[in-house]
Write a structure and sequence with these properties.
10 strands, 272 residues, 2 domains, five-stranded mixed β-sheet, alpha+beta, Immunoglobulin-like, single chain
Length: 272
């Protein structure tokens, strides 16, 4: 009897421990951990993330509750019992698991994810978008704007040097009014931004956490992406791909400005 009582106490303690672990996981995951949102499409991405977190949390909590119930109910046994489920029960639980995972996976991907994907990647940037060329290299962000003529000057790898990191052809008339900057991107609030992403050396990743933008830059490719910043301020630009020993130094900033401030900045760069 004493052994049976000790088994019962141990089983209940284990059950409570398992329940508390499940509740602790849910409590830690329910806190606000995403950075403040500063883009239009980011709201849809946040919904996808929250759905995934909620679905995964529900499954974790359910598993802990069921396991805790078994420990509470059968933890007092002093010998191992062995019971096989019927084939009908096995099929029922298998189908239930498939249906749950289908709702979680396809609900998050198709219902919530596809509209965001279609808006950001499957559609072209509006004609009013500000086009910014971003060329990555170890370990910096080279930023270029087309001048008043709206055309980017011609570039050539043979012309790349320390003074000309993008290899802009000085003989090209379209290049004479181009604006080149380093590690700082200036854009306008509520105006679409089209980024032409390139790499000079290895794979980098253009990551704006606050704007929910993340895209790899690939050597030999030009990848276009666009977004609409809807909040003024200064936001971190990080490389999210391990790109070498100086990867930790590859940091930049995105400055979202009012139209008036952006025009003033353009004028200063042009006169400078």
């Amino acid at each position: 009897m004493e052994n049976r009582a000790s088994y019962r106490v141990a089983g209940k303690c284990l059950a409570i421990t398992v329940w508390l672990i499940g509740l602790g996981v849910i409590a830690s995951g329910s806190r606000r951990w995403l950075p403040s949102l500063a883009s239009e499409h980011g709201a849809g991405i946040d919904v996808m993330i929250r759905f995934t977190m909620a679905a995964a949390g529900a499954m974790i909590l359910t598993g802990h509750m069921v396991l805790g119930f078994f420990l509470w109910r059968f933890g007092s046994q002093n010998k191992i019992s062995f019971r096989l489920a019927s084939h009908r029960m096995e099929r029922a639980w298998s189908v239930a698991a498939v249906l749950v995972m289908a709702v979680v996976a396809e609900g998050g991907v198709l219902v919530l994810g596809m509209p965001v994907w279609a808006k950001v990647f499957a559609s072209a940037a509006p004609s009013s978008a500000l086009t910014v060329e971003v060329t990555t290299e170890q370990f910096a962000w080279n930023v270029r704007y087309a001048g008043p003529d709206g055309k980017f000057g011609r570039t050539s790898p043979q012309l790349i040097s320390l003074d000309n990191p993008l290899g802009v052809d000085p003989k090209d008339d379209s290049a004479k009014d181009d604006i080149v900057d380093l590690n700082i991107i200036h854009v306008v609030v509520n105006r679409p931004v089209k980024v032409r992403l390139r790499s000079k050396d290895v794979i980098h990743s253009f990551f704006l956490p606050n704007l929910r933008v993340k895209q790899d830059s690939m050597p030999g490719m030009t990848i276009d992406l666009w977004f609409v910043p809807n909040k003024t301020g200064t936001f971190e630009l990080a490389c999210a791909e391990l790109c070498g020993f100086g990867h930790y130094e590859m940091r930049g900033i995105l400055i979202v400005m009012t139209p008036e401030d952006f025009e003033k900045w353009l004028l200063e760069k042009k006169n400078g």
